[in-house]
Design a protein that fits this description.
globular, 2-enoyl-CoA Hydratase, Chain A, domain 1, Rossmann fold, multifunctional enzyme, 716 residues, 31 helices, eight-stranded mixed beta sheet, N-(1-d-carboxylethyl)-l-norvaline Dehydrogenase, domain 2, 3 domains, alpha/beta, seven-stranded mixed beta sheet
Length: 716
């Protein structure tokens, strides 16, 4: 044994080659401080052993190295800039020292080699991957750029165009694609990986592969003439500007860094990378995106833990109510391998549900993501029926009929008579109290809410709503079923609108009040999309939701939380609904929807909408971007805070993920609580107080006022 650490070892094989094996105590290998220190010590031990002819780097686990330990980042990035720079510089120099070993090196890559794992492989002279490998630099998804030499080595291995595409998108590559692009030198079957790596490094040691030339290319400036460089980097800049926009600084920084470093040697290029990394580490976007990653891990960990505790197997689902929503839920169950019965009272509704599933699959086939076999299997796994007795064997029944408590109550009571005693019954209601609906059932303990978001196949979130009488076993089984359907479950407690819609409707109310005060809905949409970063502004979103749905849900919320959510007099949403301007579903709402000359969907601000709103509104006036954002986001933030304080949602992290996955909250802002924290609690209190005169939805809780005074955090 040449070196033995907690997370990696180096041993000398009989043929004179050293084997550096990453095998951490946990389930995966990752670069934390301990592992980086050990890599440096191992490198020095190899360099000091004259018997070593070459080095093979491999993993003792099913994955190579999954990246850096993100949990160490938050504390480290809070340190002063010079300390973060010192850390990243010293760390990247560890990889340099490994790269400078006096013998050839090869990485034997199995499973994930991401971030720091990919950078470790790039520090080797040669790389061989097996067919399970996935290689990439996904740091952009955390608002960062590679920090251990990735922006230096990858462009010099596969060319700047390919490297920038890898880094600015963060997408990984399977072995064959990595081979085609020159990132690895061979792809072999998993059982041949070590043998192939040893054979290749032996060839290098014998001079059959010029490993010194390869290494020199990685430590020299990029081989680009002036015109090539100009074309390469201007194309990359245009691509990033179009794809990422102004809210995500990381991809822009990568292009700039690779461009400026292209004429420098390794030391100069690495210094630029270190500086860029530190600048990004200090941005709000990086804090937000790292926060999302950690919150996502928390949510997924909770879900898996709950699912493991489930004692009930879900082998067949049933959906009551076909239509668009029911069809979407049925498709999601079937495509993930759980057969589903889709029941309705009318054949046209069943036809609509089946056509919804077929439409989703058809689009997948057009894009080459769905095979005819998958399409056939999925559709065959959906059984349409008009009869209740078809659901008798269902383990989980999801009611998705019209959003009316009386109708839902009748359907739930009928359902209970036709299913087994241990079948679980759920409602896909978006606003109606689960406790209220549970009154229709003889066994409310097996009932909960299972709120999907539209379009079901695209939206990752399912809100699982626990009623007063819902058992832990029921929740665990529904969480397991949600994961089985490929969705992210977040468990919340019952209240009107639950979590997502409860915080959305004060946002809509803030929008309506703003229009009545003379704002232009197109200007508001523009600010909330372009500046705040929502995928749709409020007017456009209301058109997509449907004015009938929004008006009905607002009535439910007003009944449930009358002290804050009373319906607004002359609410533009109600005015448009009464005029039968329902939004996208009938082509006219705030916007008129149609097709342009090329047959593509179009939307134009509707003169008719202005005519309906204007008689009830103040004279038209321009509001600043800051005021528009404040008047819409303060009500949403206040209601989210109340949900947390009341125990509707268990943590700020879960609330952030729910809004991200259920509403498309801008990822660079990290979620509603991350948004409040980035502003600073004291600043948020001051801003909300400025608008408190506008009504109860703008008035903050005593809890947040106290937290701000005490300097506390929602993420402590």
């Amino acid at each position: 044994m040449i070196y033995e650490g907690q997370n990696l070892t180096v041993s000398l094989l009989d043929n004179g080659f050293a084997e550096l094996v990453f095998d951490a105590a946990g389930s995966v290998n990752k670069f934390d401080r301990q592992t980086i220190n050990e890599l440096d010590e191992a490198t020095q031990a190899i360099a000091g052993n004259s018997d070593v002819k070459g080095v093979i780097v491999r993993s003792g686990k099913p994955a190579f190295i999954v990246g850096a330990d993100i949990t160490e980042f938050t504390g480290m990035f809070a340190q002063p800039e010079e300390e973060v720079l010192e850390w990243v510089s010293k760390t990247s120099q560890v990889f340099d020292r490994f790269e400078d070993l006096p013998v050839p090196t090869i990485a034997a890559i199995n499973g994930f080699a991401l971030g720091g794992g990919c950078e470790m492989a790039l520090a080797c002279d040669l790389r061989v991957a097996d067919t399970t490998a996935a290689i990439g630099l996904p740091e952009v998804k955390l608002g960062l750029m590679p920090g251990f030499g990735g922006t230096v080595r990858l462009p010099r291995v596969i060319g700047s165009d390919n490297a920038l595409e890898w880094m600015t998108t963060g997408k990984d590559r399977k072995g064959q694609q990595a081979l085609n692009e020159g990132a690895v030198d061979a792809v072999v079957a998993p059982e041949k990986l070590v043998e192939a790596a040893l054979s290749m490094v032996a060839d290098a040691a014998e001079g059959k592969i010029d490993w010194q030339a390869r290494r020199k290319a990685k430590t020299s400036p990029l081989k680009l003439n002036k015109n090539e460089a100009m074309m390469s980097f201007s194309t990359a800049q245009a691509f990033v500007a179009a794809k990422a926009g102004k809210h995500y600084p990381a991809p822009h920084m990568m292009v700039e860094t690779v461009k400026n470093a292209s004429v420098l040697d390794r030391a100069g290029a690495l210094a630029l990378e270190n500086q860029g990394f530190v600048k990004l580490a200090k941005t709000d976007a990086a804090k937000a995106q790292i926060g999302i990653f950690l919150a996502d891990q928390l949510v997924k960990g909770k879900g898996k833990k709950l699912a493991k505790s489930s004692t009930k197997a879900i082998k067949q689902n049933a959906v009551l109510g076909a239509g668009i929503m029911g069809g979407g839920i049925a498709y999601q169950s079937a495509v993930k391998g759980t057969p589903v019965v889709m029941k309705d009272i009318a054949q046209p509704a069943l036809d609509l549900g089946l056509s919804e599933a077929a439409k989703i699959l058809g689009k997948g086939m057009q894009r080459g993501k769905v095979t005819p076999d998958v399409m056939a299997k999925t559709l065959n796994a959906i059984t349409p029926t008009l009869e209740y007795n078809a659901i008798k064997d269902a383990d989980l029944v999801i009611e998705a009929v019209v959003e009316n408590p009386k109708v839902k109550g009748i359907v739930l009571a009928e359902t209970e008579q036709h299913v087994s005693d241990d079948a679980i019954i759920c409602s896909n209601t978006s606003t109606i109290s689960i406790n209220q609906l549970a009154e229709s059932l003889k066994k409310p303990e097996r009932f909960c809410g299972m709120h999907f978001f539209n379009p079901v196949h695209r939206m990752p979130l399912v809100e699982i709503i626990r009623g007063e009488k819902t058992t832990d076993d029921t929740i665990a089984a529904v969480v397991a079923a949600t994961l089985q359907m490929g969705k992210t479950p977040i468990v919340v407690n019952d209240c009107p609108g639950f979590l997502v819609n409860r915080v959305l409707f004060p946002y809509f109310a803030g929008f309506s009040k703003l229009l009545l005060d003379g704002a232009d809905f197109v200007a508001v949409d523009k600010v909330m999309e372009k500046q705040f970063g929502w995928p749709m502004g409020p007017a456009y979103l209301l058109d997509v939701v449907g004015m009938d749905t929004a008006d009905h849900a607002a009535s439910v919320m007003a009944d449930g939380i009358p002290e804050r959510m009373q319906k607004i007099d002359n609410d533009p949403v109600t005015v448009l609904f009464n005029a039968q301007r329902l939004g996208q579903k009938n082509g006219k709402g705030f916007y008129n929807f149609g097709t342009d000359k090329r047959g593509r969907p179009s939307k134009e601000a509707a003169a008719e909408a202005y005519e309906l709103i204007t008689p009830n509104a103040a004279a038209k006036q321009d509001f600043s971007s800051e005021e528009i954002i404040a008047r819409l986001m303060i009500p949403m933030a206040n209601e989210a805070i109340r949900c947390l304080e009341e125990g509707i949602v268990a943590s700020a992290a879960e609330a952030d993920m729910a809004l991200l996955y259920g509403l498309g909250f801008p990822p660079f802002r990290g979620g509603i609580f991350r948004y409040i924290e980035t502003m600073g609690l004291a600043n948020f209190v001051e801003l909300a107080d400025k608008y408190a005169h506008l009504g109860p939805i703008y008035q903050i809780t005593d809890g947040v006022r106290q937290m701000a005074a005490d300097g506390k955090s929602y993420f402590a």
